[in-house]
Amino acid sequence: MHILMIECNPNGVQGIANALELGHDVTLVSADPGFYLAASPLAESAFAHPRCQVVTSTEAFSINGLEQLAKEIHAANPVHGVTTYSEYHTVHTATVARALGLPGMNVDGALNARHKHRTRLTLDGTGIRQPRFAHVDDPTRIEAAVREVGFPCVVKPSDGTASLHVLHLRGEEDLRDYLAELARVTDYGRGVVRIPDILVEEFVTGELVSVESCVLAGGEVVNLGLTDRPLSGFPHFIEMGATYFRGHPLQDELFRLTTEVLRELGVDFGFIHTEFLLHEDGPVLCEVNGRLIGGIVPTLMQISSGVDAYLEVIRQALGERPELPFPGATTAGGHWFGAPIAGTVESIGFDALTGLPGYHSAQAYKKPGTEVNRLAKSNFDWIGHLIFTGENRDMVNERCEEALERVELRMKLEVAR
To answer: Which tens digit of pLDDT belongs to each residue from 332-348?
Structure first.
């Protein structure tokens, strides 16, 4: 079978490698394949595989150009499934699947999940609890929207991901700084152009959790499990950990809400990641992502369930019924870490973690000699992670937090003269 991958993400290269191992052909369309070569230890061998074709194209983010390119690829070697692990490219994937007559999410549903203002506007008045919000599509109206919602508030690009350019505003000074920063942002890299739409939302307190789901053919929503998502970096929102589990006191309510949200949005296919803030008055919808959860969580799913979610995404795109990664008896979780100050990485060591109870693995994202920023603004500031297992999420989180103290990070710092 031939899989067309519309961009990917660094961890998702594992899915490409797995598909190649099973004998599938994979064509990856990317505006910048070097991004994956620099970020994934698997990319070099996967891209060199005789059944892997990497197509470098600046059209990867152009709907019309990508659709034409996909038809040319299909004509040369018939495509049997289209998919992505990239948040930026879910609408593109749905559009190409439709053009080729292959399984995929309907394009309106993909748009409703991908663009946060469409999520809010579509669900407004349905009874699903959301933050009070104002949607603006003109940067000159952001100040008025902030004053309409009131301080404190949260501002976010409608098409962002990884908490990039999401900020908690406490007052006028924060607002001025944010507007100045946003004016400089026209794209997210790899040819991904930012749309002008911005959401201004009331600041809702509470634990952040996500529901991981799969919408099967015919629209059946199967809720798999929950992921807790501790945050750091306030007033920015940086995810610092994740545990994949079942058994939260609000699980039944969260599963019911997720099913309702996905049906209202028209999200009718694929693995889906839906986030909620657990306010004291009840769950509040944060956002919906029309793709498999990113970061280390698919690995946590596999540790707990024995099912490779990356591969199941591909199997579903090929028209097969995916095996579903329900959490098992073992709970798996991990924590990310970053640099306390900007500098150049000399080494990242995990030797002191070996032998600790529940230790599974650890990975550094930055090679020696790489310049890094201080962990401050978004998930893109991560420089590594570690993963532990345990009997429940409290045990796993405790083990991860204790292990972070044992990670050896050596850096070279510029000394001011």
So the answer is: 999 999 999 999 999 99
| Domain membership of residue 35 as a residue range | 2-102
Residue 315: which CATH number? 3.30.470.20
Q: Residue 24 sits in a domain of what CATH number?
A: 3.40.50.20
Other beta carbons less than 10 A from residue 136's beta carbon = 21
Which runs of consecutive H residues, i.e. helices, occur in 206-317? 251-265, 297-305, 309-317
Full strand arrangement of the beta sheet holding 167-169 = 133-136, 198-202, 153-157, 167-169
CB 344 within 8 A of CB 367: no
Do 220 and 174 fall into the same domain?
no
How does residue 415 score in pLDDT terms, banded at 50, 70 and 90? Answer: low
Residue 158, helix vs strand vs coil: coil
Taking a C-beta distance cutoff of 8 angstroms, is the pair 343, 414 a contact? yes
How many domains does the chain divide into? Answer: 4
Q: How distant is the alpha carbon of residue 293 from its chain centre?
A: 5
Q: Is the pLDDT of residue 160 over 80?
A: no
Q: Please give the Cα distance from 245 to 248 (Å, whole number).
A: 8
Over residues 348-387, the pLDDT tens digits come to 999 999 999 999 999 998 889 999 998 877 777 889 999 9
Which residues on neighbouring strands pair with residue 382, listed in sequence order?
none
Domain annotation covers residue 122: no
Listed residue (259, 261, 257) closest to 283, CA to CA: 257
CATH number at residue 168: 3.30.1490.20
pTM exceeds 0.90 for this model: yes
Instruction: Give the gyration radius of the chain's Cα atoms.
Output: 21
> What number of residues does the chain have?
417
